[in-house]
């Protein structure tokens, strides 16, 4: 780990390859396993680890901008529904501070429903960091503001609500003690090559 303006950031490149299930010092890959049907996912292969858009500058439909998270592709999509078979899990334990489910399942570019995030969840991890999960499928969200969630707990399903042109998870990490500040590169926290404990 290293400090950024006094805030601890975990860089998984310098840490161990595997963690015990009881460890909670690292973020887990936020996509669950299609084979797992329970409310908790501590093992199993993530149904997708493909990043379709990284953190940083990008151009979308001719407009330059800055992408404040990573997009994880939808993987196994269900045709014409705006959803996929992929479940989203809490990347780390914490308290839900925002759960929004007011957007239609099928989004489009420029749609500002949910602030553009569509149906989304924000979790406060109690250490000055927050994670945001966006574009969820309508009515798939299983957690609400005030809920305490465990690392690996299912919180919803991948969708394409809000400012989205296809099923994917937009995943953000925010650091600095305020949910609206310091949107940092999530790949400093999660690693598709080391998604979570192996057992």
Briefly, what is this?
The protein is 0% helix and 36% strand. With 199 residues, it is mainly beta.
The first-to-last residue Cα distance is 24 Å
Assembly level: single chain
H/E series: EEEEEEEEEEEEEEE
Computed Rg: 16 Å
| Average pLDDT | 79
Number of DSSP strand runs = 15
The total count of helices amounts to: 0
Global outline: globular
Unreliable runs: 1-24
Q: How much of the sequence is in beta strands?
A: 35-45%
* Coarse structural class: mainly beta
Quick one: biggest sheet? 8 strands, antiparallel
Give the proportion of residues in helices: under 10%
Description of the molecule:
There is one protein chain. This protein is mainly beta and 199 residues long. The protein is 0% helix and 36% strand. It has no helices and 15 strands. The strands form 4 sheets. Strands 3, 6, 9, 10, 11, 12, 14 and 15 form an 8-stranded antiparallel sheet that branches. A 3-stranded antiparallel sheet has the order 7-8-13, with no helix packed on it. The two termini are 24 Å apart. Residues 1-24 have low confidence and may be disordered.
């Amino acid at each position: 780990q290293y400090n950024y303006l006094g805030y601890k950031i975990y860089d998984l490149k310098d840490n161990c390859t595997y963690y015990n299930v009881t460890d909670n010092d690292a973020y887990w890959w936020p996509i669950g396993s299609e084979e797992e049907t329970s409310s908790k996912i501590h093992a199993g292969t993530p149904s997708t680890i493909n990043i379709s858009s990284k953190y940083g500058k990008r151009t979308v439909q001719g407009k330059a901008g800055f992408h404040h998270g990573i997009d994880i592709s939808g993987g196994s999509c269900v045709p014409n529904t705006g959803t996929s078979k992929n479940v989203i899990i809490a990347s780390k334990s914490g308290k839900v501070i925002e759960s929004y489910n007011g957007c239609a399942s099928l989004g489009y570019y420029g749609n500002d429903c949910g602030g553009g995030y569509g149906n989304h969840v924000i979790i406060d991890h109690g250490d000055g960091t927050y994670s945001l999960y966006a574009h969820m499928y309508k009515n798939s969200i299983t957690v609400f503001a005030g809920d305490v969630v465990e690392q690996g707990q299912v919180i919803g399903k991948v969708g394409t609500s809000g400012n989205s042109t296809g099923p994917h998870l937009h995943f953000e990490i925010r650091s600095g003690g305020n949910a609206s500040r310091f949107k940092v590169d999530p790949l400093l926290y999660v690693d598709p090559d080391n998604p979570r404990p192996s057992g």
